[in-house]
Fold this sequence. Notes:
The complex is a heterodimer.
Chain A: H1 2-6, H2 8-40, H3 44-59, H4 62-73, H5 80-104, H6 108-117, H7 121-155, H8 164-172, H9 176-204, H10 206-214
Chain B: E1 2-10, E2 16-25, E3 30-34, H1 41-48, E4 56-61, E5 64-65, H2 71-76, E6 78-82, H3 93-97, H4 99-103, H5 108-121, H6 138-150, E7 156-160, H7 168-185, E8 188-193, H8 196-202, E9 205-210, E10 214-219, H9 221-226, H10 231-237, H11 241-245, E11 261-263, E12 273-277, E13 283-288, E14 305-307, H12 313-322, E15 328-331, E16 337-341, H13 343-358
Helix pairs in contact in B: 5-6, 12-13
Main location (chain A): membrane
Domain ABC transmembrane type-1 (chain A): 15-198
Pfam families (chain A): BPD_transp_1
Amino acid sequence: MTWFLGNLDVVLRLLREHLVFSLVPVALGLLLAIPLGWVANRTATLRTVMTNAAGLLYTIPSLAVFVFMPAILGTQILDPVNVVVALTIYTVALLVRTVSDALTAVSGNVVDAANAMGYTPLRRFVGVELPLAVPVIVAGLRVAAVSTISLVTVGAVIGFGGLGLMFTEGFNRSNDAQIVTGIVLVLLLALVVDSALLLAGKLLTPWERARRAVGRTT
Amino acid sequence: MIEFRGVTKRFPDGTVAVDGLDLVAEQGRITVFVGPSGCGKTTSLRMINRMIEPTEGELRVEGQDVLAADPAQLRRGIGYVIQHAGLFPHRTIVDNIATVPMLIGRGKKAARDRAMELMETVGLDTAMAKRYPAQLSGGQQQRVGVARALAADPPVLLMDEPFSAVDPIVRESLQSELLRLQSELGKTIVFVTHDIDEAIKLGDKVAVFRVGGKLAQYDEPGVLLSRPVDDFVDNFVGRDRGYRGLGFLSSDTIALGSLPMVSVGDPRPGDGWAVVLDTGGRPLGWVEAGDGQVTEDGIVPGGSLYDVGSGSLRGALDAALSSPSGLGVAVDAEGRVAGSVTADAVLAALPAARDDAAA
């Protein structure tokens, strides 16, 4: 605790860095995953190819991605863009399947009704399918956000900022207080972001509350 | 008016869903497509708003060639009601109903005002406007579905088995409600069902389809019951078609007989039965011969009542058959007893009514 209070300015800076390194990729990843998920849902073949490719992407070790990013992007080895791009890729890999599943789960009867009312495909996607997919997408987004917050710490091993630096520095200086503070802050950050997403999901879907209160599934 | 001219739908696997359909759904009338599953009735319906594209033939809605129209534009001008209502679960009732007005760019306020109006039209409490579909019963959801289809005031309404998922009592009330609405709105309605009774109740004209997408018979319901073209239609129309056909014959020529009438407190009749009236002259039930006075407890429930004004031979015959005395009670528009009708009188009126219908 004394270490924490004595180094408050450093800790807050790292926390802020960590937040940016994790939330920016999650947001970008979501923005990319929505159209990709829609594309994946066009045909059965596309869906298989894209969700498997996304799954494969996710299995590449994060450290390797961080190291190879400069070679692929032509950036400096310690450019934060490397982290943001790498983590965006992971988020997309996680969310493409989620978005595609969420869209598949929208009732065919409802989509049919939307077509019959005279929705154009784009308007139907934005006005009907996407809102109805929100609960499933938010569930996937929470997993992506928490795992990204955790992955950012790996970046510290090769010198990126964020709360991971407290592990590497604490380890080098045998400073247990610094390591523990780092762990607690990462956990707290994950918890806060997760709760915020949960709340946002609820606020976005008032009809879900009505449905649960009635206890029906349609 | 909706015109099918030689319309065929062949699916890529070679199945012919609709085979050379020629049919005109008349302006302002209810046309019912009925038949067993696989007869192409729903496919035919869905070709009208291009949810399914015809392979051959010509299809016109209000004179417009369907295949030349932009699908989204076309559909906004055609109301559509589906099974299970197909409401948008994430939108409130009022916003569900306002869907098409919003799509065609009317303001939010105007669209919602119209939606509130329509809630009343279809018999929904406007207090439900802010609820979500999941909070409504199946019958209420289906009413919302009808209101949503009517929101942009389209001249044509397509209804795809809209009442098949609700229980029989609710279904009956939705059917009556549709007939009431139609008498006010006069839309050109195409209604698909597999239920021949529903078809006969609702249709101004009924198209019976057979498996393979062939139109077997297209006629008014009374004609369908009295003169089915072949065994298939005969079988499909079902048992009791002779009796049900009486529902389409006018009872104008029936001569009403007299009826012994008493009130509560009067002495009971000396022999036979007498109908018990309330103070307004409306029938309460029957009382059998006996000693003492007519008491409320002693009233035997009567049969169905035969409404002289809107009566059919079926109503008259049923009143006679269901009455404990064998005398059917005929009532006027206010529900007051107008006289009696017997099964013999109904049968005597039958030849004239048949000639009348054939003319």
